Amino acid sequence: MEIIKRIVEGLSEGEADKTELLTQEALRQGVLPEIILKEGLIAAMNMIGERFKQGDLFVPEVLLAARAMQAGMNILKPRLIQTGIKPLGRIIIGTVKGDLHDIGKNLVAMMLEGAGFEIIDLGIDTAPERFIQEVKDKKPQIVALSALLTTTLPMMKATIELLKAEGLEGTVKVLVGGAPLSQRYADEIGADGYAPDAVSAVAKARELLNLR
Asked: Which domains are delineated in the chain?
């Protein structure tokens, strides 16, 4: 389908305005929202993810593509809700308390949304208590914790320990990521999953929820 092909091209080139307009045009042409989502936006983000993984693209280019995807999603969301299309799962994401960095977290959030997950972004400097309250209120399948500063890593452990103390262990999976982290540290603090980058975060989220 020509319009879907153009959406994939626009998103791959990181052109948000073009992706938005093409998404609107596809709807006007009568293309089903779920087709635009799966064969256009998600297909394009999967391609971007693979190219990033292979080293053909870098973070700035992936961010542009993710923003273009967001532009298309903003048009599609109301229609997807109307047609009852359900997300793959709900994920709460935030940078832990004491850490004001959000580029990596934003990229992961956009990649996850592009893959079909519902994202609730708590922003930066998020206290353990806030994460726990949001888990209770929003009932996500995954809570994703981000950190860039080594000094804020203990906040990840504190959040996981508070989850356990509140009796929420087992009701939600904990996914952690950020430059100073490792699989070993994730295991030590009791996280369910660790992702070194945004592409891996999507794959790990699917794995944690047993999605094929």
From this structure: 2-83 (1.10.1240.10), 90-208 (3.40.50.280)
